[in-house]
Design brief:
By secondary structure, this protein is an alpha/beta fold. It has 3 domains: about 1-60, Orthogonal Bundle (Helix Hairpins), CATH 1.10.287; about 65-220, Heat Shock Protein 90 (2-Layer Sandwich); about 240-365, Response regulator (Rossmann fold). Helix content is about 45%, strand content about 20%. It is built from 12 helices and 12 strands. A 5-stranded mixed sheet has the order 2-4-5-7-6. Helix 9 runs parallel beside helix 10 (about 305-315).
């Protein structure tokens, strides 16, 4: 099962790349092929992330980075991820949130992961044209989130085991509802780490399903003191172009990565320089004086941690924004990044939209 699910997304990617080689640049079908590649690579990245997270949680290596967060913001980001998947299958996705902010003391990234998993599961197990809903409400000292669908439902014998690792429904030759069966396991453990509970409900096969998440509410009325100066939501940032083009240094030992990422950033109006080793990154930075550096960790000569440390030690360069872009994403890696002076730590494959939002924030500070 594992080998099948990890290899499965690669086949359409290979076919799509071959088609792109054959089609002229002005072929109207190129956009459709690009969407296939994007969808399959995101799927593969989610599978890998889920596998790594299961390992980290089972060995106690996941630490929550709690902050005061509004449930609506967390849910909104999860819906942004799930809505294109739902639209591809003609699903109606309805979202109902309380009119007032519902504050939680939580790790927003991990909670977003929970709700993204639940919504993605609903999309996966609901036939084309079905309905999915997410609703949230405050109930006493709890915040309750319900994700319902009109999908295939859960058999009574499976319901008690639905959160067990590698559990899925029918594993027949029909693989249209693919996956590793670990998303719900992750969701339960992350909810429990927040002091909450998650429950699965279904009236049986063909009757849809409902997942109910209960989380402790933050018992304080009103926004945090610094709410007025908090960063804008991601959706708002996407609408705001940089206040001015930035000088951005892209450092990675993969020439393909620097070429493609550099091109994307140039298309957004930024001035780009690239480097492929630690020592050359320091040389280019000294001459280029970038506003931001997107820096891989696994570099030859000097690794990314050493490069970041030396940049921070240079009075002429220490004010630049340092963004780690790496395949290393465990808690120890994030801790070490903060210690040497990175401002952000992004795990590959990086979402270009997320990177653009970070650069927009940088432009707002230096513009």
């Amino acid at each position: 099962m594992l080998a099948h699910e990890l290899r499965n997304p690669l086949a359409p990617v290979f076919y799509a790349l071959r088609l792109l080689d054959e089609k002229p640049l002005d072929d109207p079908n190129r956009w459709y092929i690009r969407r296939i590649v994007d969808r399959q690579m995101r799927r593969l990245a989610r599978l890998i992330d889920d596998l790594l997270d299961v390992s980290r949680i089972r060995t106690g290596k996941v630490e929550l980075r709690k902050d005061r967060v509004d449930l609506g913001s967390v849910v909104g980001h999860a819906v942004e991820v799930a809505r294109p998947l739902a639209e591809d299958r003609g699903h109606k996705l309805a979202v109902s949130l309380p009119p007032e902010p519902a504050w939680l003391e939580a790790d927003p990234v991990r909670l977003e992961q929970v709700f993204t998993n639940l919504l993605s599961n609903a999309v996966k197990f609901t036939e084309d044209g079905g309905s999915i809903s997410l609703s949230a409400e405050r109930q006493g000292q709890e915040v309750v989130v319900r994700v319902r669908d009109t999908g295939v439902g859960i058999p009574p014998d499976l319901l008690p085991r639905v959160f067990d690792l590698f559990t899925q429904g029918d594993r027949s030759i029909d693989r249209s509802r693919d996956g590793l069966g670990i998303g719900l396991t992750l969701s339960r453990r992350l909810v429990e780490m927040h002091g909450g509970t998650i429950e699965a409900r279904s009236d049986g096969v063909g009757r849809g399903s409902e997942f109910v998440v209960r989380l402790p509410a933050f018992l304080h009325h009103g926004p945090p003191a610094d709410e007025e100066t908090a960063p804008a939501r991601a959706a708002d940032l996407e609408k705001k172009p940089p206040s001015r083009p930035l000088r951005v240094l892209v450092v990675d030992d993969s020439e393909d990565t620097t070429e493609l990422l550099g091109t994307l950033l140039e298309m957004a109006g930024h001035s780009i320089q690239v480097a492929h080793t630690g020592p050359s990154a320091l040389e280019v930075a000294a001459a280029f004086r970038p506003d931001a550096v997107i820096l891989d960790i696994g570099l030859p000569g000097l690794d990314g941690y050493q490069v970041a440390q030396r940049l921070r030690e240079d009075p002429a360069l220490r004010s630049m924004t340092l963004i780690a872009a790496t395949g290393y994403g465990q808690e120890e890696d994030l801790r070490r990044s903060r210690e040497v002076g990175f401002d952000q730590h992004l795990v590959k494959p990086i979402d270009p939209g997320e990177l653009q939002r970070l650069l927009a924030e940088v432009a707002g500070r230096v513009g």
